[in-house]
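Record type: monomer structure entry
Structure origin: computed from sequence
Chain ID: A
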Amino acid sequence: MEIAFKKIAKESLNFELVKEEMRFFGKVSRKDNGLILLKANLIGQISHTCDRCGEDLKIEINEPLEILVSEGIYKDAIDELDVIEFYDGYIDFDGILQSEIESVKSDYHYCGKCQN
C-alpha cells in the first residue's frame, strides 16, 4: 500500500494494513513541507526460531510507533524520532511494516525451554 506525499495534509489520514497475522494501523499527518508524522500500532504475531535451540516459536507484538517519514533526504538530525526516507514521492506502508518486523526479529528471542 502506498500513499503519495502530496495527498497528506495537516489533518490526519487513517490507514490500515493487514499482512498474515500482523495488523499495522494508525494515522499520518503533515508535520511540515517535507515531513510526515506517522503514529501507528503494530499488533499481532510473527513466526521465528529460538536463538538458542532453533525451535519454532511465535513472537507476540503490540508496539506503538511514532516515526517521521521524509520526502527525500532528511537534513535535520535534531529530532528525537526515527526517520524513514522515501525518494519516489510515495510512502510505502508495506516497506515500513516489513522493516519493523525485521527490527523485532533482529533481537534475541528464546522459546519457553531456553528462557530459564
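Annotation 1: Residues 93-105 form the longest helix (13 residues).
Annotation 2: Helices lie at 93-105.
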